[in-house]
Amino acid sequence: MAQSEINIEDVLKSYTLLEGANGYVIFNQDCIPLKRSEKNISQEKAVHMAALVSDLWNVTKKVIQRDMKTPDNDLEIIRIRTKASSEYIISQYGDYTMIGIQLCGKAIEEAKLAAAEEAKALAEAEKAKKGEKGDA
């Protein structure tokens, strides 16, 4: 494998381990989603995001090359932070583009609390289920 090649599975694994990572979409130059975090992003939403981000990427790249007056200036990453405490990180490599969605600030703490509550509810449900089997 050449040094410049990227193993997408390794990239996704390291991304999902980041604190606040909340989803991703990878799509090709035709805006067809190839991979997505199925937990958070539906296929329909992935297609919609791919189309919008593709346009954003292409327009931004043209503007940078035009305004910087040098065609060798290249766009590597776009970061967009929303009012909803999330951040979209967009990067392109060859014919593929990745959108990473990451929670920011207070949203990370809220997600941790929600995950802890969900785990607690699952544990209690499992405990109750075992109690019912013991009574039967």
Explain what the structure shows.
A 5-stranded antiparallel sheet has the order 2-1-5-4-3, sandwiched between helices. The longest helix has 30 residues, at 106-135. The N and C termini lie far apart (59 Å). It is α+β, with helices and mostly antiparallel strands. The chain has helices at residues 8-16, 43-67, 106-135; strands at 21-28, 33-36, 77-81, 86-93, 96-103. Strand 1 and strand 2 form a beta hairpin. The protein is built from 3 helices and 5 strands. It is 47% helix and 24% strand.
User: Alpha-carbon distance between the termini?
Assistant: 59 Å
Q: Which percent range fits the helix content?
A: 40-55%
Series of H and E elements: HEEHEEEH
* Biggest sheet architecture: 5 strands, antiparallel
- Can you tell me the overall shape? elongated
Number of helical segments with 4 or more residues: 3
As a percent range, the share of strand residues is 15-25%
Uncertain runs? none
Number of strands: 5
Q: If you average the pLDDT, what whole number results? A: 83
In short:
The chain has 136 residues and is an alpha+beta fold. It has helices spanning 8-16, 43-67, 106-135, and strands spanning 21-28, 33-36, 77-81, 86-93, 96-103.
How do the helices and strands line up, and which of them pair or pack?
Layout: H1 8-16, E1 21-28, E2 33-36, H2 43-67, E3 77-81, E4 86-93, E5 96-103, H3 106-135
Antiparallel strand pairs: 1-2, 1-5, 3-4, 4-5
